[in-house]
Structure formats: structure tokens, C-alpha cells
Amino acid sequence: MQRPDQIKPESKPSKADTEFLNAVTDGKLMLSECTRCGGLFYRPTICPDCRATTFKWVKAQGEGKVFSFVLTYPGGKQGTGLPKAVIAVIELIEGPRFMAGLTGIAPRDVYVGLPVIVDFDAPEVSSDVAPFSFRPA
Questions:
Q1: Can you name the CATH fold of 61-137?
Q2: CA pair distance 49, 11, nearest whole angstrom
């Protein structure tokens, strides 16, 4: 039997989360566009530019560049073998940033500024990071 401090609450996806994930399932990467100022964001609840709370969905081009990245190693320790995966922060050409896996490239060849495109079909995609990945353009 689990102790109360070991029980993690189950989270239910919001309506916006469900809409976003449904679009990803259909092969579309969506952004929220503020209906007041036109700012583009990844799923904010309030516009960081004008503080509005109403948004509409717009389709992103799915292209961008590596803004930052980390290499993950087996057992979580560098020096225990070759990097297992690359987790990157991708800056889309529209401006917003996503964290996702980076596939189709050797970890040693990844660099900040690497042009990338979204990949909905990568077998290495980890749902722990994002329901899609990016690969070199």
C-alpha cells in the first residue's frame, strides 16, 4: 500500500493541451496567437507582451534552429559511454521555443544554430519531452 506522500496526483490535460496534442497527431505544430497584439507563443495562459488572455491557433512552419542543447548519457553520468540522446531547445523561425528530442544526427555533430525541422514520425521520440522531435533541415 502506498503512503499518502508517495501518491502523485493525476493531471488532466486542459482543453488547450488536448487541442495542441490533437494537432500534433495530425502532423501539425501549432502556436497560440494573441488576438490583441498578434504575439506568437507556445501555449501561454496570458500574453507576456500585452497581458491578454484570448488566443487563436495558428500553424507553425515547423522550421527553426537549435538554441541550446544537452546530451544525455547512460546512467545519467558523463563518461559512462557515448551520449544516449540529445534534448534541445529549438527556436522556431516564428520566435517561440520548444524543448524536444533532436534525432537524425550524431550528438557530436550538434551545434547551437543548427537548422532543424519538426519530425512527427521519428521512432526515437520520447513522450517524456515532447510528442514530436526535430531533425536537421
A1: OB fold (Dihydrolipoamide Acetyltransferase, E2P) (2.40.50)
A2: 28
**Dist. CA 21–CA 134, nearest whole Å:** 16
Cα separation, 124 vs 136, in Å, equals 15
- Over the chain (137 residues), what is each successive 10-residue block's mean pLDDT? 57 81 90 94 84 94 96 70 84 94 91 96 58 91
pTM for the full model? 0.80
Query: With left for phi above 0 and alpha for psi between -120 and 50, is residue 113 left, alpha or beta?
Result: left
For 124, the grid coordinates are: 526515437
**89, 69 contact by CB (below 8 A):** yes
Candidates 118, 109, 119; CA nearest to 71 is: 109
User: What are the structural domain ranges in the chain?
Assistant: 1-59, 61-137
